[in-house]
Specification:
Elements: E1 4-11, H1 17-30, E2 36-43, E3 49-51, H2 75-80, E4 90-94, H3 104-112, H4 121-128, H5 130-139, E5 147-151, H6 152-157, H7 159-169, E6 174-178, E7 188-190, H8 193-203, E8 209-214, E9 219-227, E10 232-233, E11 237-241, H9 248-254, E12 257-260, H10 267-283, E13 288-296, E14 302-308, H11 318-325, H12 330-349
Parallel strand pairs: 1-2, 1-4
Antiparallel strand pairs: 2-3, 5-8, 6-7, 6-8, 9-10, 9-11, 9-13, 11-12, 13-14
């Protein structure tokens, strides 16, 4: 059987650059090399695209993926296919955060008419923007915690009024988040006015728009979703922390978390969470993959927190482990995602783009 040509794209001009490299290492090592040829494109911190070699063996050290060099071909030529002229059957963007997970690179793939793994332009951008995401969830009737959102320009002009609004509408602790970022980059848990101001200043380093959410005493529950028009879900898993806040350092450096899979919750709560995960998937018109994150209180009240359109695949990551619990191996999961990308591409090719006048 002829191998399918897949191009892995990773790195990116984002605060989550290093996370993307770890994800790429994991995915590349897990891919079935008997079924796929695996080419690479590395995007460095400055946004330079560098074409890497075909990967034929496991990568022991992720640092070898941090390529050096100059862009030898145009981006269009890089994405059009392999050096021997064969086209790519799909590209697999393993980019987290802005400039990769927010619909920008997905738009490039659409314009170049290239099949790609993961969510489309609308789903990626709306899943990345926490405010837009919340508005779409509300339209779907999904329960959420109270929140306040504002722009940096508004805060600079109406600082006192905005602080008063936050403290009147919400109660401490609150979580301050850049609207467009992931992996807990720039997020702060704030317990008083002083830490709130510090959290706002920190978050504005990463985005011009913030979302401040009501804190709640709750368990953090996650559900993995896979599919296109007929998505499937896993049983829920729980993030059990031995730190007060599951921040970037805890996720990717210290590993100070335990993933309980499946979560120790009643069957009816599992089913509710799985149904809500599908509703969230449909609310933002997702395809391919999503991890839906929820809060579960002591009385089993459920609030959706967010969806992640490109969850990480590091050794600490919940998404592949949730599917492993459903007897879908990491390698099988990657194959399914590539097949879903081709399925969506072929379905879109059936649409009519010309009309007779």
């Amino acid at each position: 059987m002829k191998k399918e040509n897949i191009c892995i794209i990773y790195g990116g001009k984002s605060a989550e650059h290093d996370v993307s490299i770890l994800t790429a290492q994991s995915v590349i090592n897990a891919m079935d090399k008997a079924r796929y040829t695996v080419d690479t494109i590395y995007i460095d911190n400055d946004g330079l695209w560098i074409k890497g070699p075909e990967i034929t063996a496991p990568i022991e050290d992720a640092e070898v993926l941090r390529l050096n060099g100059e862009k030898s071909r145009s981006i269009t030529n890089m994405l059009s296919g392999r050096e021997n002229g064969e086209a790519y059957d799909a590209v697999f963007p393993l980019l987290h955060g802005p400039n990769g997970e927010d619909g920008t690179i997905q738009g490039l793939f659409e314009v170049l008419d290239i099949p790609y793994v993961g969510n489309g332009v609308l789903a990626a951008s709306s899943s990345m923007d926490k405010l837009v995401m919340k508005q779409l969830f509300a339209n779907r009737g999904l329960p959420q915690l109270p929140y306040v959102s504002f722009l940096k320009s508004e805060y600079e002009k109406y600082r006192h009024n905005i602080l008063e609004l936050v403290m009147n509408k919400l109660t401490f602790p609150v979580f301050v988040k850049p609207a467009n970022n992931g992996s807990s980059v720039g997020i702060s848990k704030c317990v008083d006015k002083e830490s709130l101001i510090q959290g706002i200043e920190e978050a504005f380093k990463f985005d011009r728009k913030l979302v401040i959410e009501q804190g709640v005493e709750a368990r953090e529950i996650e559900v993995a979703v896979l599919g296109n028009d007929y998505p499937e879900t896993t049983l829920a898993g729980e993030v059990v922390k031995d730190v007060s806040f599951y921040d970037y350092k805890a996720k990717y450096k210290d590993g100070n978390v335990k993933l309980q899979i499946p979560a120790d919750i009643p069957n009816e709560v599992h089913e509710t969470l799985r149904n809500m995960a599908i509703e969230a998937f449909k609310a933002t018109d997702c395809s391919g993959l999503v991890r839906a994150d929820f809060f579960l209180t002591e009385d089993n009240s459920i609030y959706i927190n967010e969806t992640n359109g490109m969850p990480g695949f590091t050794k600490f990551s919940m998404y592949p482990l949730l599917w492993q619990n459903m007897d879908v191996s990491y390698s099988e999961l990657i194959t399914k995602l590539i097949d879903l990308a081709k399925e969506r591409y072929e379905a879109k090719k059936q649409l009519q783009y010309k009309i007779d006048l």
